[in-house]
Amino acid sequence: MSDREEYTTVPVSAQQFCQFWSAHVDALDRHLSASTWALGAVTGVLIAYPITRIVIPAIIHGFVAHGIVPDMVRTVLKLI
After folding, report:
1. H/E element holding 28?
2. Whole-angstrom Cα distance, residue 1 to residue 53?
3. Tens digit of pLDDT for each residue in 6-36?
4. How many CB atoms neighbour CB 14 within 10 A?
5. Range of the structural domain that residue 58 is part of
6. Are residues 55 and 37 in the same domain?
7. Euclidean distance between the first and final Cα of the chain, in Å?
8. 74 with 64: CB under 8 angstroms?
9. Which phi and psi (to 5°) does residue 24 adopt?
């Protein structure tokens, strides 16, 4: 059996599925360096920042503009 065949088995139960993915995460912890994790974290922040600063306020503004949000919430959002 090769190393690849060990990870290609199909888990049958939910417990086996959790153990299967836990083994994958443990393998990542063992094989990825701290700089690789830091690069992944920076990438995640670079993706999440525009979403939180642009997309979410645009969605909230859309709800306010269409009258979906009550007046009290609308005044609080205007104050912010």
Report:
1. helix 14-31
2. 50
3. 665 565 677 888 888 888 888 877 887 888 8
4. 8
5. 33-80
6. yes
7. 61
8. yes
9. -65, -45
